Amino acid sequence: MLGHQRPALRQCSNSHSAPFSAWHKPRANQLAQCRWHNGSRKVAARALAARSSDVELVATVAHLLRWLQTYGAQQTSNLEPKRFRTNVGERVGLIACRDVQQGEVLLEVPESFAVTAIDAEQHELIGHIAKECSELVAMTLWLMAERSKGSESAWSLLLQTLPDSTASPLLWEDQEWAELLTGSPVLTEARNRQSALQQQWTQLVKHFQQDADKYNQAVFNEAVFVRTFCVVLASTSYLPSAQCFAIVPAASCLGRTGNDNGCTLDYDTGRQTVMVVATRPYREGQEVLINDGRPNGELLLSTGTLQDANMSDCLYFPASLIAADRYYSMKAQLLESFGFGPEERFPVYADRFPIQLLSYLRLSRIQDPGQFAQVTFEQDVIISQLNEYEVLQLLMGECRELLARYKTSLEEDTKTLQRADLTGRERLAARLRVAEKTILGQTMDAVRRRLAPIRGIPTKSGRMTDPNADIREVFDFIEELPKKPAQLIDNIKRWAKGEYDPDWNK
Q1: What count of other Cβ atoms lies within 10 Å of the Cβ of residue 131?
Q2: Cα–Cα distance measured from residue 374 to residue 324, given in angstroms and rounded to the nearest whole number
């Protein structure tokens, strides 16, 4: 919960927070002090939870909205739950009950109903353990403990609106990883994060074993911990103004969009509420979404979902200086002046790649110190034709190498998505692969367009000749490599049919 000012929060120990750096953000000094719910709110929550325990999720979310309004939430009548059918199953989202203008508040939840790590730290069962954990792990322990209470939990109604599990790859088996994610950067990330969760559990289980009678092993075990952690990832939102993660009742049901056409979700320090504000007009009946600028790979890992045509979707390309470069030190100093290090990763989107990536690669390939003055990270400035050619071929080679890691082609994945018998995970993985390969394919097209004007130069005879023909020949050979196995099989088939016999078909 968020509330009065308090002393700075203790930073998480490295042993707990380091493995979760991909998700965890440091707690802020101005994060508000927790306030316990008063007794009347607890009683009302339990009573309403008991009445809605057997009602479907849509009705449960509707009950939650009405309950929030009873206890101080504003604008809850602007939204109503609706079940959406997707190609990986059904989900419940929120739609606008009326036409909404840009800048209008669609939902305002009092801070006392937002669950944060502070609730976990003050929990009677796991509070002393949560104090040693990162925010997300602390909230995971809180959710495990509250769910163990069943309908006796003061938060029972909220808990009923949260999923029991997600489709995050963190919960997939090794065989599914190998079959569905080979070639995708998500595979490595899933393995690393699952390993980090296992290490985290190794630390936590020591606490539970010390007082085994207090902690039910059916509730506090590794499988439940990992599954609950994924639910927390999918249900929490980061509140920039409070600089913390929070599970916000009702708002946790909102879908997400990376196209910057949704709503903002943040804490208002003046009103001490969490507010959902429209950043564009909504028509009555339209689904209300929250802006979430994460790429599909991160969305899948964190929420078990992804968005088709996600404008925020990207792949990260590595770039680094060459350690053996005689000008390494000079280049490193120059990069530092621009705010970069000797190794960087840059986002590449389907419709664009950053100027900074090109500038970085151009600098890394310079062998004439006199050209250092031409380097800029603010504009798309070509150093020389030879330098540009080499940089573009490096990009092309990176794209080809990444595409070669997949088991299937873009065309095969597109056909796979047309099958009606796919499981939810198979469909999610195929959609992810299609999105990633689309980025790589369109990046290669963009590189080819840039290469076209510099691939040839005029000679005295008037013909065009390639000044880097030997380099181009190497890359053209590499580009043909993926086709070789298919050509070999085709040649064997033709030989078996007798097509290479000079007297065949005469």
Answers
A1: 15
A2: 23
Asked whether the beta carbons of 167 and 425 are under 8 A apart, the reply is yes
Q: What span, in angstroms and rounded, lies between the C-alpha atoms of 506 and 504?
A: 6
Token pair, residue 343, equals 């190794």
pLDDT, tens digit, for every residue of 458-486?
444 544 455 555 555 555 555 565 555 66
- Per-residue pLDDT at 396 exceeds 90: yes
Token pair for 469: 């023909």
**Of 433, 258, 447, nearest to 357 (Cα)?**
447
106 with 288: CB under 8 angstroms? yes
For the chain, what is the mean pLDDT? 84
Report the DSSP pairing between strands 263-268 and 89-96: unpaired
Q: 């030997």: which residue's tokens?
A: 470
Task: Provide the percentage of residues in the chain whose pLDDT is more than 90.
Answer: 74
What is the amino acid identity at position 151?
S
- How many whole angstroms separate alpha carbon 98 and alpha carbon 82? 14
Q: How far apart are CA 378 and CA 124, in angstroms?
A: 54
pLDDT, tens digit, for every residue of 339-371? 999 999 999 999 998 999 999 999 999 999 999
What is the rounded CA–CA span in Å between residue 319 and residue 334?
A: 15
Residue 347 neighbours by CB under 8 Å, 6+ apart? 295, 314, 315, 316, 317, 353, 354
